[in-house]
């Protein structure tokens, strides 16, 4: 069975076009995580706060980030996909985040195969409402979990997202290749 984190490449043209492995679905409170030892997607927990994922959320294969997890990616979709779905995506922004003292940035991307997002190339192409909803979700989704503190640290453009992806690919190579 294919291990979606270890066996797939980061993307067909990383860091410009990457693969996003979906774990959590737009509109849901279930926090799924890919378990490379199974391999498969498992229910990690149900979010304690009454919030839901603003879009499909997961990780990029063969990446490892400063929080010692695969690098996170939120792909803007019109309709949710399913846990384990692989989406070819174009990074357009990076949202800085601190999760309990750990750097836990999020790449924001759009599907390459959805013409509704062809015009979205960089952070300035996202609406203020989109950025506000994404930031609000990540600022509040752990509020009711004891002792958890999350802070969003602002937005950077597509170039910063691609630089962070290259960093995560290098960390993966240093730790696992």
UniProtKB/TrEMBL annotation:
GO biological process: phosphate-containing compound metabolic process
Binding site residues for Mg(2+) 1: 67, 72, 104
UniProt cofactor(s): Mg(2+)
Keyword DNA damage in annotation: no
Short name of any one Pfam family annotated for the protein: Pyrophosphatase
Assigned GO CC terms: cytoplasm
UniProt binding sites for substrate: 31, 45, 57, 141
Catalytic activities: diphosphate + H2O = 2 phosphate + H(+)
Location(s), subcellular: Cytoplasm
Domain of life: Archaea
Keywords: Cytoplasm, Hydrolase, Magnesium, Metal-binding
Subunit structure: Homohexamer.
Family: Belongs to the PPase family.
Task of the protein: Catalyzes the hydrolysis of inorganic pyrophosphate (PPi) forming two phosphate ions.
Descriptive protein name: Inorganic pyrophosphatase
Organism: Halogeometricum borinquense (strain ATCC 700274 / DSM 11551 / JCM 10706 / KCTC 4070 / PR3)
């Amino acid at each position: 069975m294919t291990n979606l984190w270890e066996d797939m490449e980061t993307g067909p043209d990383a860091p410009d076009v990457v693969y996003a492995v979906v774990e959590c679905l737009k509109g849901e409170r279930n926090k799924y995580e890919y378990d490379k030892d199974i391999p498969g997607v498992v229910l990690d927990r149900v979010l304690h706060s009454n919030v839901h994922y603003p879009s499909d959320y997961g990780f990029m294969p063969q990446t490892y980030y400063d929080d010692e997890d695969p690098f996170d990616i939120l792909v803007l979709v019109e309709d949710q996909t399913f846990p384990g779905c692989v989406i070819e995506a174009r990074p357009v922004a990076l949202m800085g985040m601190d999760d309990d003292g750990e750097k836990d940035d999020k790449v924001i991307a759009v599907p390459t195969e959805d013409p509704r997002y062809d015009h979205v190339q960089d952070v300035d192409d996202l609406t203020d409402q989109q950025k506000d909803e994404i930031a609000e979700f990540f600022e509040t989704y752990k509020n009711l979990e004891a002792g958890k503190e999350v802070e969003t640290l602002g937005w950077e453009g597509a170039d910063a997202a691609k630089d962070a992806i290259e960093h995560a690919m290098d960390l993966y190579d240093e730790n696992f290749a």
